Amino acid sequence: MSMLEYSSAAWARGGLLAMRSVPEAALGDRVVVRDHTGRSRSGQVIRTSADLVLVQIFEGTDNLDLERTWVRFLDKPFELALAPEVLGRVFNGVGQPRDGRPPIVARLSRNVNGASINPAARAYPREFIQTGISTIDGMNTLVRGQKLPVFSGSGLPHNRLAAQIVRQAKLLHAGKAESHGDFALVFAAMGVSHSDARFFEESFEESGVLGQVATFINLADDPPIERLILPRVALTCAEYLAFDLDMHVLVVMTDMTYYAEALREIATGKGDVPARKGFPGYLYSDLAEIYERAGRIRGKAGSITLIPVVSMPSDDITHPVPDLTGYITEGQIVLSRELAAANVQPPVAVLPSLSRLMKDGIGEGMTREDHARVASQLFASYAKAQEVRSLAAIIGAEELSEEDNRYLQFAEAFENRFVSQGEREDRSIFQTLDLAWEVLSLLPKEALTRLSEKDLDARYRQAAAE
Questions:
Q1: CATH number corresponding to 371-465
Q2: Burial label, 465 (beta-carbon count in 10 A; 0-12, 13-18, 19+)
Q3: Which CATH class is domain 5-76?
């Protein structure tokens, strides 16, 4: 069958091509489409029946002349060529080079559809990954093998935050950075503009991390259907680096909402029954199929940690994509439009943010012994400060007590000194915790109820000595 070509195209629309009279076509088979100009396009079988075979064409179906279109069914799944040399390279959504350099000389090829990690084989995520961003490292710590999404909104700087994480991420062991030899990054961007794509590539090159990063980019004017394969291609690359080469891999994906919208477009073209906001009913299982490929496997030295960026249409956190993402992943980093308007960068809203696995990546031997208590005190104090701000808006700041005014001072210092750091400032976890102590010192000692007496005595003795 793989040697035969068929010219029985019935119709083409929205990246889908329907073929008649194709015996033995299998779900997931890769196809090569040759049009009347001689141009080749890649595709995959997504539905089979006795009458029609439905193929999704990753480069789109524009300008196809159905009578002069030939389709070859390769009788094998869509595969990605893999080798250690993928690091330092830039690819398109289907894994072809877009950096002007020759294709990868493959050591092996692997089915991009992969599989979620068997729950029975999973190892529990542990150990700290330092991003250099205080609101993440100090209060919503990222752990090796975790899935921690970033929830953002239109116009917020989530792409810059994603690039900053890629530039600054480090493995820490016993509080010290490990060598880069065991650490790699996979960056996947979907639906980005040409200027954003240039920003990512230049940012990684200037910071010296380009050699550690495998980059996959789908531009806004590339076919949307290419976004359906890109996360799977990127994660297949990550699995090779993690479980074949024993590396710890951080995967950053932006933006999963564009992926979901491409999925909705194709589902509509297939005639699938729509569910919430027109997305197909299988959106949850489709997202889980992607997210659950991250993690650690018992007996394997490597790990895959995943940070997907999810933009929320109309800032609606109950929108299907962020809503379902929250069910699958282990926390969220939420960006705030109010903080962005106040020029706080990155504008991380710490109160709705959460890392459910934080406790497994911090403490003595990983970060610092007081880390958990300092983070808890920051959360409690900032929550109280927000209540005081609401009260001041009602009765006026001049009617507040002295203690309440101290909380207002704390909130301002917390946002402008701890949360805000700029996209070029890379803070170690120790700098982050010391800065947390500095802003907490603006509050009365008796208000620091989440800290131990040992913490307070040691800190105040140190302050007195200085």
A1: 1.10.1140
A2: exposed
A3: mainly beta
